[in-house]
Amino acid sequence: MIDTALRFDHVVKAYDGKTVLDDISIQIPAGDIVALVGHNGAGKTTMMKLLLGLIRPSQGRVLVLGTDPAGPDGAGAKRKLGFLPETVAFQQAMTGREILNFFARLKRAPLACNTNLLQQVGLADAADRRVKTYSKGMRQRLGLAQALLGSPKVLLLDEPTTGLDPALRQQFYSLLSELKGQGVTVLLSSHALSELESRIDKVAIMNAGRLMACGTLTDLRIAAHAPVRIRVRTRNGRAAEVADQLAGADIKQVNGQAIEFRCPAEDKMALVRRISELGIDIEDMEIDMPGLDQLYAHYRDEAHP
Amino acid sequence: MKTTLILAGQEIRDGLRNRWIVALSLLLAGFSLSLTFLGSAPSGTLGASPLLITVVSLSSLSIVLLPLIGLMLSYDAVVGEIERGTMLLLLSYPVARWQVMAGKFLGHIAILIFATVFGYGSAGIVAALSGDGFLNDAGIAFARMTGSSILLGSAFLAIGYLISTCVRERATAGGLAIATWIFFVLIYDTALLALLVDQGEAIAGGIFHTILLLNPTDAYRLFNLGGFDNISALSGTIGMMADVDLPVWILLVVQAAWVILPLGLASLIFRRKDI
How far away is chain A from the Cα of B271, in angstroms, using its nearest Cα? Predict the structure, then answer.
């Protein structure tokens, strides 16, 4: 059993003298769902291509399930790998089923499972229509179906939710938790940060070819000193008095009724205790943890002060 | 091997679906049948076998048409798939790049073989029925002509892959394919003729042979029109090659080299290409 499913060791990738990946080191344990977050051109797709063995690192090494995907045993690793490209394209004249059968043959996966797979992504009715007639969302779902061929151990999904409507996104996310239950390692890149938060184990934040941070959301919140926001609603317009009693805390905004505090994640409980000691003056309290959006913005700003 | 065959099969299925195979077969059949019917008018007075006349006229047709068909099938094969994004997905599968190249080549050759055998075969049958049948010298010449036409088409398939792997955009590949066709089919012989007229004495026979062999269409022409005395007599138009007497094996080796070298080079370049 290999514990590390995906691994980058000091990987540098340069095209024509331009560095697109700069000293990336990351280890993704088997069974984790990791989101790769970054602006366009941050190097996310390049990382996926390295994992697929389509390109070779200029320096360092990339391992997929313990083997070099661009090396002589790369084909073996690729058989256990599913990939959904950012803009998925198929031969237009083929039907969805024909395309899935073709890819299944290449992967030596049993064709019998394809009907099920088409059903799973909601394409059962369109299976025998030509891909030319598919909408963008349908093509994306066919892309997802081909990535799932042969029950892969590792899934690389480049922007898997683009082109999916909200209902299909929910379906995709439930598929994600199903895969997690089966122990599949998933590396996905996405722009839908807030939707991802609750469904991923770890986040890797990329900026201009560098890995800015990697860890669980909790880890990143603490490391980034991203402030927790606590909103308090006071009784009978006693906001000013409450604010006086809590002097020393970082008070962001006061109006007649509401106060907003900001504090580092590790001081959150201390502040909450102080607030609750004020008793009946406090009518309501909301705690806002910094989300992936804010964390991403924080690391992006850190890179460009 | 299995992977290569799966890829070739997909290429053939795509050719069927896009009506490429039907269109090419009908195109070749249409041209060759009309040449056969037109050619049967003077044959009565000459007393030549109708099948032999068909061989001569189809050889001239092949020189123009098969390079074009080969290039049209192949110029898009790599760059087009990269541009559309289907190559990225294909290469994420356990497929080696040489297998992609070999699979496409096998699939395209199968398309070429089917279209040529169907197209030329229909004309050959018509000519043979109106003459002495297939089992004679003319029949052998016809079979040689059909086989080497496929070889000629394959050479231009290979050149098309080379173009397709070298460029970054489909449009460039299309332009280069047309330019290649114009160069080998139209310009080369004219330029050679001009050279001969201008300083025919100065060019030694060996150099002249080499120049001819550097063009796959000329190797094809020599192979088909020089091989038989009857045919040489019938095809007066290639008088300038009348005294070229190269052994058949050299012509075959040259034609095969025109398939293998561009294909090998294309595979090498494709292997190093960043997708």
Answer: 10
